[in-house]
Amino acid sequence: MEPHPLRKVGSEQEEGFGVQPRRMADLGTVSNLRRSNSSLGKSHRLQGPFGSSEKHENLSSWIPENIKKKECVYFVESSKLSDAGKVVCECGYTREQHLKEATKPHDSRDTEWDPKKHVQEMPTDAFGDIVFTGLGQKVGKYVRVSQDTPSSVIYHLMTQHWGLDVPNLLISVTGGAKNFNMKPRLKSIFRRGLVKVAQTTGAWIITGGSHAGVMKQVGEAVRDFSLGGSYKEGEVITIGVATWGTIHRREGLVHPTVSAAGTEGGFPAEYTLDEEGQGSLTCLDSNHSHFILVDDGTHGQYGVEIPLRTKLEKFISEQTKERGGVAIKIPIVCVVLEGGPGTLHTIYNAITHGTPCVVVEGSGRVADVIAQVASLPISEITISLIQQKLGVFFQEMFETFTEGSVVEWTKKIQDIVRRRQLLTVFREGKDGQQDVDVAILQALLKASRSQDHFGHENWDHQLKLAVAWNRVDIARSEIFTDEWQWKPSDLHPTMTAALISNKPEFVKLFLENGVRLKEFVTWDTLLYLYENLEPSCLFHSKLQKVLAEEPERPACLQMHHVAQVLRELLGDFTQPLYPRPRHSDRPRLSLPVPHIKLNVQGVSLRSLYKRSSGHMTFTMDPVRDLLIWAIVQNRRELAGIIWAQDCTAAALACSRILKELSKEEEDTDTSEEMLALADEYELRAIGVFTECYRKDEERAQKLLTRVSEAWGKTTCLQLALEAKDMKFVSHGGIQAFLTKVWWGQLCVDNGLWRVALCMLAFPLLFTGLISFREKRLQAVRGPARARAFFNAPVVIFHLNILSYFAFLCLFAYVLMVDFQPTPSWCECAIYLWLFSLVCEETRQLFYDPDECGLMKKAALYFSDFWNKLDVGAILLFIAGLTCRLIPATLYAGRVVLSLDFIMFCLRLMHIFTVSKTLGPKIIIVKRMMKDVFFFLFLLAVWVVSFGVAKQAILIHNERRVDWIFRGVVYHSYLTIFGQIPAYIDGVNFNPDQCSPNGTDPYKPKCPESDMARHEPAFPEWLTVLLLCLYLLFANILLLNLLIAMFNYTFQQVQEHTDQIWKFQRHDLIEEYHGRPPAPPPFILLSHLQLFIRRVVLKIPARRHRQLKNKLEKNEEAALLSWEIYLKENYLQSQQFQQRQRLEQKIGHISDKVDTMVDLLDRDRLKRSSSVEQRLASLEEQVAQTATALHWIVRTLRDSGFGSETGVPILASQKAAEEQDLELGGRKKVEEPGDGYHVDARHLLYPSRRVTRFPVPNEKVPWETEFLIYNPPFYSAERKDAAATDPMGDVPELLSEISFNAVDGQTDRRSFHGPYAVRGGLPLNPMGRTGLRGRGSLSCFGPNHALHPVVTRWRRNEDGAICRKSIKKMLEVLVVKVPPSELWALPGGSPEPGETLPRKLKQILREESWPCFENLLKHSTEVYKGYMDDPRNTDNAWIETVAVSIHFQDQNDVELKRLNSNLHTRDQDVSIRWQVVDKRIPVYANHKTLLQKVATLFGAHY
């Protein structure tokens, strides 16, 4: 059967696992696979716990095709019995648990059970949802996988089918698998810290998944978190990787109906915890969210999951997560609690592969052993010390430790402690550590800081981690320190990521550390931000609609599309914020957003700024641009940080945008949040304006009418009116401004009676009865005074009132007294008057100072109720006039004109809105009219129902429509007001008042009656009952309901009536502010003048400066600076008021008390811990003394002096003193290097599956006795077999080699003098390495190498030598050869008879080899001797000569020749000149050589 393609991919990727990290290219298939199923993952996250049926079918078919289980297919009876006493196979399963094929008779020759042959893979049958019985409806996911399943397939399952978000951090928790006790406080701190770091960073926690030991501790931590109701960021992802064969009651996880093809499955399995009956097995922990159950076909074998878990963790840590243009490799950290030998091996592997570890001291066993020695120098971590610690912390199993295991423990612990940058010990109450989450994140940053990076990349990587974790506290304390000076430009990429991922605290931090928005916000950056809007954002969907409507269908978003949507939200009175680019403009950079990553391998976001540097076009107002970007996404905190400039206008614009978006938002919660944020910004605008108005009224009023270029050439007042910010408009300062506009150039304190007198008696203007604001007008007595008086809106308004009353009086007179067949002069005056009104309405319709366009202006005009009433009255007048001029319809025309008179009278209500007394009442009446319409709907139901029933009961077949309407509607309606029909009960029945057959058009039809007796025949009791019920509901219930509605409306509106009236007052003031001064019909003269100016002379309309004023740039800048200053005052006053609130004071005091209690607890813990450790040390001393006394007594009793080997080892006084120093808080600083070779003793030989014999420091010298030393022998095959020594250790093969001499073309002499030869093999002069043979080296004994260090001075653009800390800076020539990720010096072992190393030849053209040999002759030797290399063995080692080749002058001919001849034959090999620095990413032994060269030239290192 051919494997599935995905499984092939996973298998190929799995081959890449090794010590060296894999390249990004290896992950391409998985990333493509992840992209192709992204929509599937998203849809799954939106579904319920069990998903849709389509999703279910997809998962049920995908898992069996790609994920397998293992089954034993050959039953071989084992000598052991099961726990139940049954016969089992060598795999551990009983005969009944095997497949039928496995129990059939087989070839008797094949009696040994071999898992490679007898265990086969087949589609898995256990996967889907798991529900733990008795624990509510918490649903988890699980899958049974083969131990050979590729990590890429499992990762694809988790991220795509299980719908897990890619983590920002991977926390691998390891430790004791059995239950252990922790101190309650330490347990609480651990649980709280672990869950906090997982929740805040979006991490995955990986454990063993069983309900015991450290896994149980993690599960209980998650349980406490969920019960505490802290699910703000979503659930904590806890993944358990367990062995399938050790799970108790696992048969319940297997779907009974899964076929061989795996077409079904995924059922919600029920699992019951049964700790009492689990025996040697274990139960799954109910608090984990996901389970990966690893199967190798056996039963009861623990540890099967470890290799797969290791590979899976490594694979996940090599993935890249991108968010906001910043991509990081997922960091991993190992957290250790308690544990045994397996835990030590896990820690050693993690440290060896560069994974940081956090060891929790006080949890017991391995964790405490490492924590006790972590601060000691390597030289003092001896075998005896480790043996002593094991005796203390492993009392129960100490006797099982052999001498070899103690040596292995010592070696591993030495290697773990040697890499202190990867080891963090969490000590409760010590070293300033408070929480485990801080310790975990600090450990990751410390590990990142210790890695070698070029330039600022190390700090940049740490910052990316902090941003990904959303831990600004870690960034403040660990990254933004005096240790590194950040350039603002270096923070731009992470600033973009923080904005996109909505991390306002980081945005605030970056702004505090020098990021200037004017430099940060470019057109390309802003475009990139809008392209990365959340897909669920309403603004994003509106942009998509705009793009879809584009006729040309552009390939990418442009800023004028954003401006189009913003204009829809702000209003058409604004100009576009971002202009449409002209064809002559050079197109801007188009960004391929999904592929931008901030890492070394891909296209970086930093390149956005680099590429744009040559043509950076900064936006007009970066603060506004970022504020809008935050507001359209409803990001409160982010907008609050950015809101800084043009404060009042910005706040009002934000209020307008949010209110418009809330109208279209479908999600109710989001809509409410938008409205709440809009109200908040309205209050901010009020607060800032209040501060300004208190300081200077005139300047504050300038803010209202200032034309803001940043907000589309609009004003604060216009924005407030469009946003319907009634609170802002009703502010006292704004009302004072409107009153000032209302009175024009007249003084506000002029009484209306004075104005009325001057209107009626014109000469009184020149008597000083009216006062003016300007002194010039006060002194002048000419036409200017009259012009100022009659141009005042208040005068224009009252003149129009007088004119309108005159019009109504004349209109009424004509209708009632002087309506002749031929129009009289009074009627003609009415026509002229109406024509002037029509001209005025036309002027208002076409008056467009904001250049909105005719359609928009018409829509705005007809949106006003009073304008609609005006147009309706005019049209009705025209209709009545038309009928009136036709003799046949003269009376109909009078009727229409009479109705039109009513509409003209209703228009008076608009005039009264200016009154502070009547205006609010008119608003209440308008609101009550809506209640009346709703009431009429309810009333109509009762009226019609009663009317129809009454008519049907009383009248038989009434065919006259008018009398049907009277009976059903009219009479029923009048009944409510007491006009009860006389014939409804038969008492007042009179046949003379009705028509029996309904033929009399003036009489109703008689009800059902007995004509012979002249009595009614209808059921009187029924009609009376219906009438009573009708009056009860209609007259009592509905009318009282109407009164209650009116009362509620009155109370509701009355609270805001003043605000509404002040808000609507502006419209009236603005209308008469721009109205011609002459009242109708004299206004026709003004219209004639206006027609000449606009149509004939084509002079454009302009808004009066009093409502829209464009300031000079200097004046505007000063005004805005003043506003920003007062905004800060407002924010400070708000903060002060917030602090003065009782709740805040109580919370502040509570925080102080908590801090004090915490400090006291830590101080107590420090002291108690110190006492405990001192007592423990004293107990150890007493125990050793007792042992010594016992030995002395026994020896004396036996009459002998005893054996030296029996003397117990006493703890030295020096060790006790050092412990005291440690307890006092002093830390020892380890000297660099242990005095012995370190790399040559790594347990794992490089690139080979060979494990060295563990050699602790004290056993390295050959002179030291090491009786159990038995290293393996290893000599690798090499391609150049002719130049390689023999592989075996047979003396005959080695007898021809001449050591300590020149052996043919091989120089076997050591730089350190003659070396010893034992058993025909040379001994490493530096001591034991744990491996015999020559390893992967070419010959036994010294392997000579040459390392040329080629350097030059680092220079800037003008040729000057760069300096750092006064010292000059060097550049060195380095090379990188895959698969290694580290750079190296271009040196190595020359071939026999050659001078140049092989690696150097690879990067130089062949014709330049003699020139370089000449450079070597004139070089300076900087080192000659042994190199600590991982390839060294007991019998073969590397010795090198390091020479310095330095080019002093940049114009050196040899330097130019060298640069011209640098060439790589292999494309994967890289060459570069790199700055010499202690952080340079080269091999450790090469760093030592570079340091010597830097010291030689006195250069920076």
Describe this entry's structure for a reader.
A hairpin with a 2-residue loop joins strand 20 and strand 21. The protein is 48% helix and 10% strand. It contains 52 helices and 31 strands. With 1501 residues, the protein is an alpha/beta fold. A ten-stranded mixed β-sheet has the order 10-5-6-11-9-8-7-14-15-16, with helices on both faces. A five-stranded mixed β-sheet has the order 29-30-25-28-31, with helices on one face. Strands 1-4 form a two-stranded antiparallel sheet. Helix 7 crosses helix 14.
**Count of DSSP E strands?**
31
Radius of gyration: 46 Å
Task: Please state the structural category.
Answer: alpha/beta
**Mean pLDDT, all residues:** 79
Main sheet: strands, sense, barrel: 10 strands, mixed
Beta-strand level of the residues, as a percent range?
A: 5-15%
**Would you identify the regions where 5 or more consecutive residues have pLDDT less than 50?**
1-53, 259-266, 584-616, 1209-1233
The count of helical stretches stands at: 52
| DSSP helix fraction | 40-55%
The strand line-up of the biggest sheet is 10-5-6-11-9-8-7-14-15-16
Large-scale geometry:
elongated
